[in-house]
Amino acid sequence: MDDIQKLLAQDRSHLWHPYASALDAPVMFPVVAAQGVHLELADGRSLIDGMASWWCAIHGYNHPLLNQAATEQLQQMSHVMFGGLTHPAAVKLGSLLVKLTPKPLSHVFLSDSGSVSVEVALKMALQYWQSKGRPGKSHFIALRNGYHGDTFGAMSVCDPITGMHHLFSEVLPRHWFAEAPACAFDAVCTEDHLADMRRLLEMHCSEVAAVIVEPVVQGAGGMRFYSPDYLVQLQQLCTEHDVLLIFDEIATGFGRTGKLFALEHAQVCPDLLCLGKALTGGYVSLAATLCSEEVAAVISAGDPGALMHGPTFMGNPLACSIACASIELLLSQDWRQQVLGLQEQLQRGLAPAAELNAVAEVRCLGAIGVIELKRPVDMARVQPMFVERGVWIRPFGKLVYTMPPYIMDSIQVAALTAAMVEVIATL
Hints:
single chain, alpha/beta, 37% helix
């Protein structure tokens, strides 16, 4: 126990955790190991991880096949610069991503994290129009309740009011925000649902480089699900107004919604696609931005004849090797049935929460289960309550939600959802 307290004291003295105070740090729970769907705490307790480490550990932890991929790659090289060099793992990963995503996506730019993949997509869109001699198309349209990351370009297309970045509003580039889709997942979008987006495109299309959206699921901006039909009509609007379309699938890619990519719900292909999180199964940070042949050709034909971006760890061999193994592992299994099974279990387990006074709505899609409360969660009070019940759930705002590893069995899901309902019942 003394060792645990020493560890926590050093953590408080030196480490700054995400969205937390450096001086009045929240309670921390030291993890010493992870296996399957469980996190092992330093005090001996085991927690069922309902967050898949912020949605990326889709295969759970310490998977032998992913461990093997990492070990074998380490015997060759852990890293090599991607400028002027290439290597088999990156080539294989690029080919896999192009094969799995719809035409006309054909070129893959590898980067370090989801936020950076969004930065790259924005820069691609800007360079595309500069290369076409239309530099005035230098702004973006995004959705209310949208979230695309924490770097400056990504922050600029997050909702400036309901998002987490209002402190930086005076220094961020100014873009336009359309009303979030109000059409339910299983509904048809009407003209009213597209009216605000249409209005903004009609007013500003000569200044807009691209529209960026999270397809079907708005993640950290509210865990909102909306109709795929919105995407069908949005693509038509973008084509009509000569504007590129960017899909941010960092949270939804690789099966989370019941389709390999959320865009498949609508059978719509964007001009640019951002991927991350589950790309490596939660092992190593890696992201990708895919673009169409036209986007790549136009950028490459313009001045300076290159995309002006190049992260130091771009195309990291270790990350690429694990990503290939993670994708192959996913495709080798009946992952669709796994995810649909999780959806049914989450719906059944979370349904009792709908009767609680504190709850505004319960909703599930694929391996995503959400309980939206009427008031924000008191994290200092609620977080330990989940740990006491043997589960790891990390709420934010009014949302108590789970995005579990796909390998979670029905008994584990039942324990997870029961803990969620039980804690909320105390509020």
